[in-house]
Structure formats: structure tokens, C-alpha cells
Inverse folding.
């Protein structure tokens, strides 16, 4: 059965994930998986800033009124989606530059170089997982339990790196990837 | 007296010029001067794609309903204005990337790399005059008199270059700029 | 049977598509398919700005005299074709930067950075479909029926995005691409 | 008298602003001015990620333990400060790429391209004001009064743009900047 | 009195220098000065590849028929001039990318990335002097006296560098520029 | 049997082709094939500017003394080979930037941005064939028969393009590549 | 059996190799192979500048106190590892920019553009072997035997190039790669 | 009186500083000042890799034979000097990319992207001071007194930053630069 992405009204989603096209879905999957891992309620939509501006507006305004907290917007090329979402809400907006024909450099500049007065919190090109983690950090500012979970994630992440280093000491660089 | 930029209803403006900020006005002035030179009725507005989306929508929708033909939109940095205008109308939209802290490379990529299904006709970084000329060419597709004017402009432009070349032959490169 | 690309004189082609080399043909195919979809008469040629300048001149001048309206020119690398076409006619010229060894950055800059006085309406790198749509928009300025068709295209395009979003709501991100 | 930047313990600063060098101070001033405008308590430090790592660690750890919420870190060139701060705390970190010899492209890439698992919320090159506004948005997620202030700021910002547009309609582009 | 740049028929110019605009004249002056220094007959023109294609064709064809040897073409932005000249003659063409709003990167790529089958010998951005020296080297392939002159130039150039090095040894780096 | 690349003394090679590594050989093959096609005698070597400077010097000095005319040097990355060859001879040097991990942008800049006083005639990234053609053009300045051959090559090249265009007219874009 | 990478205390390792992630291991292998080839004792670790700062600090401080000489640090993207290592020791640090989604340009700028007062000796993108060779050169400054080995390596490297050139002379370019 | 830069034979210079042109002298001055500050004997020359290859070779070979330890080479544009020096000695070579018309991006790539087998230790664009510090670090590997000096420098550098931070706390950001 598919993961449900619609929230009941009494327990509104805290995060809204929007992507410009379903060609971004695969690259954005680590974002949803990370939010799932932290047990955070979120909604996820496909909505083009240009092709479906009214639909996008409905999504964002509804999410905002329902008490949502953070929007994650992913797009590539002349990636206007995060900026257009920023114009539709006063909630913090996280922008994810998707990799494109120009290696994502166009996506990155189109998202990060926002004019004064209208910020978008930009993560790395293809940084789907980091977008989710940044959203977690923002929610954790006022949610001690979530912050504890995030600290736990960070500690485990560190242990993972050190375990790999230990393995490298033991097996040597020539046999590290041996079964 | 200031040039009038509002049009009476019985004779609607054919071109709508929008810039994202009054910091773009000086760089965009050759656009308006060129339109004036061709005697074309136009409107000119300051409207940010992000800060004043509703106002922008009113301007573009009104211009469209009134029978306008082409929109010229100029912006810098993460320049979303031309793309957002393109989403608000089915008229052709000409995008002018204004020079920015990154030399206009961000402006250029943010305007030209539009997704499939939503074109913006992009001119050079800082290409205010060319935006006006392209608008003239588009109008001239169905306006023989305007096309004749544009052909005249092109012929004069060629004569200007050749006159300079002749002057260079006569004065030599060391004295070309002498009075 | 091959699509016919030659037009009878009594019903001249409205658009002329030129590409610099047959290596551009595959990338440019969405342009012709889009024009076919809108039922627009067009001609299509292979003509190098450098290797076959006289041939190019004949094509463009003939198209212009026959009452054509817009030229679409596609090229890669030091992509001079759109600019050279612009010099051969006063019709609007749409430039398509083909993807190259330098990701199309050279193609893009060679097409878009045209000098003042000689614009080329540039679309995204590899933007074959958008070139056709921009040509449609230009023709639609004086052709109400074509404009209605283009508005219909835009509405359908929006519906397509929203249908995908609905599917994502229903199936969830993990099962979106399942059959 | 100088603005005070040290906070008493019973009312801890919500934001910590760190810059890599006092050569960044002038460029970062709009950040502090904006925070002042919103009446937000903040601390401001000069601390190099490389030259004074231990000092930086003390600042960030102390700010974190005291109940701070968001860190803003600004640096140029191989700008490691925001990433190093991100490693020292689990609070959200906003990175400001300062303009450099390479136009800030090096600063931008050094800040935004963070590895998976360690995000930095990046704003535009030189985006000091936007860093402050993003911090405001993050605090406002759990602070309705601050959110109302930010909505007010956004509304005033929109009015400012529209007032300029009206002035342009009235004075015309040639006289806009006249006294 | 201005340097004469027109040649008598019995003694045709060996080099033709063309620039796209008189705004390139100042930057190109070291080219003419260097040719003067080697005593090489040359012609110099202003001719735009786009605005004055027919005039350019006349110049190049006439120079070619008269027995000229090398063309130097300088342009900026979407710098098509060298490529267009290459299409008009089978003589070797040297391209000089003039510095532009994008630092000359657009000029460079527009000149150097020529398609297979149509080379342009490209020198550095702003490399006016090197264009002249390369032309000298090409002429010197079949002109022993000129080659001897060029070898002499190279030897003197080397001596100049060594004299500066000696001065640095004697005065020290702190006083090198002292009078 | 392998093509011979060593020349007898009484009939010296006119062109010397040097590449920095045998990893450049495949990319450079169109250069040798083109020279073969024009029947031009050439030598071809592998010689690193850094690893085998003395060997390179012997090759270039010997070629120069033997009456050679043009050197073609190909290299990638921090491509110093063409510039180092230029320092070893007063003959014209053609530089070919080989495609690299950075798409050849490093190779291109390392070759074309030579200091004033020491030009390298640079062709496109990967422009092996154009390097040969440029060498042919340089030799043809004083070799009427070779120039006639080159003009013939250019005419055939034009015919090839036009034949493809005719085929496109006949078969249509959907069937152009059908057998 | 795996190569041992831990050193006994009486014979401390001279070089410490650190990589940010085991995804860098394959690309960095030529570094370890080269050090092995020179018979140099080294340690090799996986340690993220951000995820495991304390662990990294322990490694570097221990290596430093034990009498180590040079650190090689490899990372990609916003590659802070070399700079962070430089802050942890006064030993020379060699930085290796690993190839990334942006071709390693982000890695390169993040490593090489270090602020004044804190150098990192940067090698080419993907330059694992050169990092090892540079470390050898640094050790050889005070180790005559190692310097002799390195000179031998350089001589053999030169011979290798010349042998390939000879083979090219003998077999010709068309048969060079034939068995 | 000028600083002396020639060393007596019994006490050979440990470092050789070479720049490609006296236009680099001003930018390179912090390098010499830093070496002076550490009391390190050095030589300083102007020597072009291309114009004065034989002179450069004499300098480097002599320095090498006399027992020198490290070469610092600075150049701009197609900056071959560091690489050419690397080919002339087996001593470690530090490359300094000088700022150029292309912001030093060409200088940087021309220096850092050296082929496998021939490293250059590259510092930041314009990184004259860091080149000196890196040389100090390399010498300090086998010179405990110098290492102690360098550690002292680093400690003082840290204190300088912290003093500025303290001043910022006391005076506030608005009065930091007040006298």
C-alpha cells in the first residue's frame, strides 16, 4: 500500500513538499524518506510555478492556513518554484536545486540569488536529504523532542563514519570493499 | 514634461514594460527610448514577481484583456519576473537579464533556462535596446508599416557602421577619436 | 511516408526552421512535432552559417519574400547560425542553443549575447519545444484562432500537472511509478 | 553609544551572528539592522573557523546551551565558517556567502554544497538582509507575534514597490529620479 | 598626420584588420602598433558581421583577390565576426575576443568553439598584440627576413625581462618602483 | 603496415604534431587523418612539456632547423604544452585543448590565455580536425596549389551540407535517418 | 592479506591520509599506491570534518604529537576537510578536490581559496597521485635518500613518455594501440 | 636601502621566489614580507616561463644545486610558470595564481590542474602570503625552531581575531570602525 500523504484536519501536516515536475520525484525521494524516518507529518505535491500557478497558490495558502510550518520546494533549470512559493507565504521556504543539463548551476543560481526582502533557504544541488534535515532543525527550534531525535541522528551519523574508518584500519584500502 | 506612459482605452498600448525594481530603470531606459523612437505605444511598470505578485497579475491581465501584444520584463539575480509574467499571459514575453553581482550570469540563466512548455524570449545581459527591437520585430509580423520602419532602422544602422569605417580609413587609428 | 516540408506557393509556410548540422536533427525534433501539433506550415533546412552561407542566404531571403513570419535557428558550440540569420532578414529570429561539449554554455552565450541593434530571441539550451511555442505565441499576436489553440494547450498542460499531483496523493511517492 | 550586543542570562539572545573577519562587517551590517528592526535579541562575533576554532566552539556551544535558536554565519572565499558552525550545533545555521575576488562564486559553492547529513541554509551572495529575514521566519514558526510583524514587513515592502510604480506612471521614465 | 591605412595596388596589404565596432578600437590599438613596428602593410576596417554583412564581404573578398594573406578579426559578446570572416575567405583568420560584460568569456567561447571544418586561430581575451604577432609568425613561414625580425623581437623581449630581474636583484622588492 | 611518420632529410616535414600523452592520441586522430587527406608531410610525437622537457626541445629545435613550418600541440588540464612549444620556436604554434575532467575549460584557458608577446593559435576544445585545417591555411598562404586544394575541400564541405538539406526536404524529419 | 595501515610507535608514520567519506576511497587509491611505491609509512582514515569533528581532531593531534610530517586530506563538494585539518595542526596540509556533481569545481574552490593565514597546498581535481608525490617532495627536502628515489621516479616517468613516442614513430598513429 | 635578495654561498637561500612579470610584484609583496618576518633567506627573480626559459632554467638549477628547498612561482592568465619550474627541479613548487582579466580563474586552472606525475602546490588566487606560510610549513617539517615560530604566528593570529571580536562586543557593530 502507498504511504498516505494527505493529513486529517485535526493533526495538520507540518511540512509541505512541492516539486515542479514528476521528473524530480526520484531525486527528491530521500527528502520524503528522511521526513518519514523522523516521523514528521508532511504533504507532497507536484505543482509547477508557471504551468499551474493557481493550483500552487491553493496548495500553499491551504497549508499555511491549516497551521503548517515549513515548505520544501524542488525544481531544476530556471528554477522559480521556491521563489514563487516564498512569495505566496510568510513561512520559511527551503529550496532544492535539482541537477539539470547545466549540472544544476542554473537551478542553484535561480534559487539562491533571491532579491533582498524575499529569502529562500537553499541547500546543495540535489540536496533532497539535507532539505528534510533543515526542515527538522527548523521545527526543532520549538520542539525539544524532535531536537533530541535530531541529536540522536547526528550522533549515529558520526558513529557510522567512525565505524567505516575502523573497518579501513582493519582491512586496508585494498580490501575495504571486499565481502 | 514627463513622457506619458498611460494609454487611453480606445488606443491601447501594444507593449507592456515591467521591471522588478527601480534600480533597473536606468539600465532599461534604452528600451523605452527605442520604443519611443519607433512611435510605439507602451506602458511601463515597476512590479516585483515576489513582493507584489497580485499587483503584477492585475497589470498583466489588464494589459492582455485590453488587447496588448508583447510584454518586456527585466530583472536581475534570481530573475523570476519574466517567467512569472509568462505564466500570467499567453502573449509572447521578452526577458532582459540585468547585470548583477555575478555579472548577470545568474540573471541570464534564471531567465533563459525556462522549462519546456513555457518559453521566455531572452536577449543579452543588459540588452534593453534589443528587447525593444525584438518587440518591434514581433509586432511587425502583422504590421507592414512598422516592418518598413524597422528595415529603415536597420539600413541606417548599417550606414552608421560604414561611415565609421570610412572615417577610420581617412583619419587612421591613431587619430580616429581626435576632434 | 515522410512528412512533407515543402509548401505550395499559394499557401506559404509561416515558419522556417534551420539547423546547422544533421547532428542537431534529433534534438530539434520536438520543435517540428510541436509545430505539427499546432497545424502550422513550416519549412525545415540544414544550412551552416559558415560552410554554406550563400545557400542559407537563398533560403532565408526566399522565405522572407514569400511572406514567412518567423525563423527558428538551432546550433551548437560557437553557434553563429541564429545571429547570421538575424542579419539576413528583419523577421524575428528564435535561437536554440544545442547541447555541446561545454554543456551548451558556449552555444547559449554565442546566441544570446548578440550586439545592440540585432536581437535573437533565445530559448533554453536544448529548448526545441519552447522555440516552437514561442513562434506560436508570436504568430498568435495577430491570429486569434491560433491564440485560442495556444491557450487550450496551456490549459491542458496545467491539467496534466495537476493530474500527476493527484496521482501522487493517491499512490504515494514510493508507488508513483508502479504500473 | 554603541548598540549593546551582550545579553543578560534571564533573557537569552535568540540569534547568534558570526563573521569570519572584520572585513565582512560592513557587508553584514544590513543583517544586524534588520534584526534590530524586528526587535530581536542577538549576539554578534568575529570568529574564524580556522584561526580560532576553539573560540568559535565556545561561542556556539554557549549560545546553544543558553537557549539560542538560530546561527547566522557569514564568510568569503573558501567559506568554511557556516559549515563548521553547523558541525558544532544542531540548531539551524544560515550561511551568507560574502562577495570575494571570484565574485562570491567560491563563497557560494563552499557554503551551499554541504555534504548529505549536514545542511546549511544558504542565502544569496551578499545576502545579509535576507539572512536576518530567514532567521525571523524560522523564529516565527513558533512565535505568532513575530510572524505578524513579518507579515506586516512584507505588506509594507509590497506597498513600497507599488508606490514606486505609481511614481513612474506619473513622472515618466525620463523624470523618475528628478527631485 | 594620421597613419595611412589604404594601400596602393602594386604593393597590396598583407594583413586585413577588422573590428566589429569603434568601441573595440582602443583595445585593438596594440595590434596596429605592433604591425607598424614590424613594418607590415595592413588595412583596418570597422565592419559588423551582422549590421553590414555585404560591406564586410566586399572588404574581405577584395583583400583576398588583391593577394592579402591573413585577416585579424576582433569582436566582443556573441562575437561572430571572426567566424563570419572565416566563411568568406580561405585565408587564415585570427580571432581576438574583446573584453565584455561577462569578462570576455562569451567573446572567447563565441570565437574559439568554431565547428569542425571552419577554424579560427584564437588568441587571449584582449590579446590584440598577440594577434599581430601571430600574423607576423604566419607571414614569416615564407618570409625569412620577417622571421629574422621576429626572432630579434623575441630576443629583445627576453632581454627586457632579464633586465627587470636584474633591477629587482639590485633594488630589492621594496624599492623596485622607486624613481 | 603503419603510416610512416619519419621524413627523409631532403624532403622535410612541414608540420610537427605533438601531444602530451598517448591518452590524447585517439582524440587527435582526425588531425593526422586530415593532414594525410591533404597529402601534407608531418611528424607526430608524444612529448610532455613537464616530464620530458629536454626531449621536447630536441624535437622542436630539430624540426625548426630542418625547415618545418607549423607546430600543432595538443594537451589537456593545465595544458602547458602549446605554450612551452611556443617558447622553443618562432614558428606559429597551433594549440588544441583536449577534453578533460572540467569539460576542457581548464585546457582551453591554459592554452588560449597566453601572455602578451607569446601567442598560441587556439582552436576549439577537441578541435583536432580544425588544427589540421588551420595548419593547411597557414601553409597555403605561400602555396597556391595547397590553397586550391583547401578551396576544393571547402566547396565539397558546402555541397555535403546542401545534400543533407535536400535529403531532409525529401524524406522529412521523421524519416531522415531511415535506411 | 590487507596492507597494514597502523604504525608501531617506535617508527611513526610520516604521512596521514584522511578522506571525508568511503565514497572517496576508490578515487584516492592512487595516493596510497604511490606512497606504498616509495616505501613511505602512512596512516589512512575516514573522518568527516562536520560529522566527526572530535574524532578528526584526535587523529590529527595524535599524528602530530607522534612526529608525523604531512597530512593529505581529500573531500568533495563544499570540501572543508583540508581546511579544517589545517586549523588543527601546523604541519603542511595537502588538499585533494574530489570530482563531484559540479565536476569538482566546487571541491576545488572550497579547498584552494583558503583565507590569508591558513594555506592548504591544493592539487588538481582528482589528483590523488599528485598529492602523494607532493608529500614525497616535501619529505625529500630533508631526506636525501627519498629525494634520490623521487629523482629516479621522474627519470623513469620521462623514459616512459619517450618510449611511447618511439612506439608511435614505429607503428604510426593508426596502429599504435594494436597488439 | 633596498633589502638584499642575493645570498652568499656559505649560507644559501632556502626559498626561491619567481614571478612571471614585474606587474606581479605588487601583488606578490606580502609573500616577501612574510618570509622576511620569519627571517627566512630567499632569492627573488622575474623570469618568464616562455620569454626567458633558459634564464629561468639557470636560476632554478643554480638554486637547486646550491641546496635550496622550496620554489614559489607566481603568474597570471595561462600561468605556466609554476608548472615549468616543477619540470626543472624535484624540489616542491608552490604556485600562486595572480588575479587576471578572468578574475584569476584562468590562472588558477592553469596552475592547479597539473597532469599526474608533476604536482604544483597551489594556493588561493592572489594568495601571496599563504604561499610564504606554506613554504614555512614545509621547511618546518625538519626545522623545530621554525615550527615553533610558525606556531607562535598562528597563536598570535588567533589572538588578533579574538581581540577584534571583543572590540565588536564592546563598541557594537555601528561604532566598530570609529576612532
Amino acid at each position: 500500500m502507498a504511504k498516505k500523504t494527505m493529513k486529517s484536519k485535526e493533526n495538520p501536516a507540518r511540512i509541505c513538499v512541492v516539486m515542479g515536475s514528476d521528473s524530480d520525484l526520484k531525486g527528491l525521494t530521500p527528502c520524503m524518506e528522511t521526513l518519514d524516518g523522523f516521523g514528521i507529518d508532511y504533504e507532497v505535491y507536484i505543482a509547477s510555478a508557471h504551468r499551474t500557478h493557481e493550483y500552487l497558490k491553493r496548495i500553499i495558502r491551504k497549508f499555511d492556513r491549516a497551521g503548517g510550518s515549513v515548505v520544501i520546494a524542488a525544481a531544476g533549470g530556471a528554477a522559480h518554484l521556491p521563489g514563487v512559493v516564498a512569495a505566496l507565504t510568510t513561512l520559511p521556504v527551503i529550496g532544492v536545486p535539482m541537477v539539470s543539463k547545466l549540472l544544476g548551476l542554473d537551478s542553484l543560481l535561480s534559487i539562491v540569488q533571491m532579491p533582498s526582502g524575499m529569502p529562500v533557504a537553499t541547500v546543495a544541488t540535489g540536496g533532497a536529504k539535507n532539505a528534510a534535515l533543515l526542515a527538522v532543525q527548523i521545527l526543532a527550534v520549538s520542539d525539544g523532542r524532535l531536537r533530541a531525535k535530531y541529536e540522536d541522528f547526528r550522533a549515529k551519523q558520526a558513529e557510522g563514519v567512525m565505524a567505516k574508518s575502523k573497518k579501513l584500519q582493519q582491512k586496508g584500502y585494498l580490501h575495504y570493499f571486499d565481502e
In short: The helical segments of chain F are 25-37, 53-65, 81-88, 105-112, 128-140, 144-171. Residues 69 and 139 of chain F are 7 Å apart (CA to CA). Chain F has six helices and five strands. Strands of chain F lie at 15-19, 42-46, 70-75, 93-97, 121-122.
